Amino acid sequence: MAENPLAPAWLTRPADANAMPTRVWPRTTRRDAGGVATIGGVAVTDLAGRFGTPLYVVDEADFRARAAETYSAFADAFAGVGTNAQVYYAGKAFLSAEIARWVIEAGLNIDVCSGGELAVALAAGIEPGRLGFHGNNKSLSEIDRAVEVGVGTIVIDSAQEVERVADAASRHSRVQRVRLRVVTGVHAHTHEFLATAHEDQKFGVPLADAERIVADIRSHESLSFVGLHAHIGSQIFGADAFASSAARLVAVHARLLEHGDVPELNLGGGFGIAYTAADDPTPVAELAERIAEVVSAEFENVGAPLPTVAFEPGRLIAGPAGITLYTVGTTKPVEVTVPRSAGETSTRLYVSIDGGMSDNTRTALYGADYTARIVGRVSTAEPALVRVAGKHCESGDIVVDAEYLPSDIAPGDLLAVAATGAYCWSLSSNYNYLPRPAVVAVRDGVARVIVRGETEADLLAHDAAITPAQEHTA
Fold first, then answer.
1. What global pTM score does this model have?
2. Pick from 135, 159, 292, 399: CA 20 to 30 A from residue 343's CA?
């Protein structure tokens, strides 16, 4: 059977619509003798039966391994050029108390960017000195608490924040370590909303202003400047953009050394992962080696010593280790006119699931592509082009825009979407009053809840007209 003309160019009709490419799915994913997918030694049918759907599932062994491998990749690469590397897990990708403990145990620090993320890390028992605090508009109370508890580093995002952090540090009789986030002007090849180093956006200060603002930071006895920080975007393949950003940063770093120590350089994160079989991200060890070579060469060119170099991966660790399980509700074949054709039509099969943009908004936000499979059984039916739609009252409520699945997919089938471990739970909402799903970790045949799912009672409890009035009095 030929390709469906409605399919995007990157999507290839599979020989086997049951196959689960190892590049995309968690490492422990298998199909048992009956065709049921297992992750961490737990059948997805058992997970759905026990916890319901939608359900976020995290392969704990995979997550832990990716954290350890990422840490080792950067540590080894920079040891090879004569310096140290620090790795911060970007908590915004997905953070819970359990996740925080996993990454700390793997040797990483944690980057937080709100008072809530800070609260989670502290509640998990994480040493505050191992935390970095980001944000383009940190409130005075967030800054105060971060300084008070002893957060290791605060990333200053604007000239105005210098005084705010300095004042908080002075009041708490601390010398607060700070980085300065700068905009390098490197335009990463990614979605517009994921690119963060172009000039016309909300993060950081122009690189041309860095020396002036650093001088201001250094004028405060309550602040200790440790280095520049840059983040060029997210879901970036290859090392070229990181190399270009580093080259621009090193020149300014060298000039800053003329007036004081600059012990660190933070190149941010944004390393891409495979969401589909068409994606081919560079292995992290190769990325680390390439970036280390470039950074070393740049510092040699300016005659400056190599500082400690820091990175902030999140998606790279969390994304591939997670999936989302759904139950199919309805299927609907739709005849569609093929674009740029002389009236030719073809069929797209809409598959509606019991979740949607409330548990995965990335497709609606960024036009993200995903891989999906029927996981409760295998099928010998011919592949059909499908679009996996959510249950929300939005035509844009699409979870998987284009995929080939067995044409006999039917109500009640269990469907899994791969690579949802990052930016799905953390971006989830209660749109249409859908409760947020639970997050379950699986490992060695055992499943356990690490984030409890919400119930309708939880949602109603926030409505002041429903719950007793005394619960809402100060």
1. 0.94
2. 399
* Helix (H), strand (E) at residue 460: helix 456-460
What one-character DSSP code corresponds to residue 258? G
As for how many domains the chain has, the answer is 2
Compute mean pLDDT per 10 residues along the chain, 474 residues long, and list them.
87 94 95 97 98 98 98 98 98 98 98 98 98 96 98 97 98 98 72 46 90 98 97 83 87 96 95 94 94 94 96 97 98 92 89 98 95 98 97 96 97 98 98 98 98 96 79 50
Q: What is each CA distance from 405 to 20, 390, 421, 473, in whole angstroms? A: 12, 17, 22, 53
Q: Is 127 helix (H, G, I), strand (E, B) or coil?
A: coil
Which of 318, 351, 374 terminates a domain? The answer is 318
Rounded to whole angstroms, how far apart are CA atoms 375 and 343? 36
Burial of 94 from C-beta contacts in 10 A (0-12 / 13-18 / 19+)? buried
The enclosing H or E element of 350 equals: strand 345-353
Torsion on CA atoms 426, 449, 327, 22, rounded to nearest 10: 80
- On the 0-12 / 13-18 / 19+ scale of CB atoms within 10 A, 160 is exposed
Helix (H, G, I), strand (E, B) or coil at 252: helix
Q: DSSP letters along 301-344, please?
A: HHT----EEEE--SHHHHSTTEEEEEEEEEEEEEEEEPTTSSS-
Residues labelled catalytic: 393
For 354, the domain range is 30-59+321-460
Tokens at 330, concatenated: 């309805």
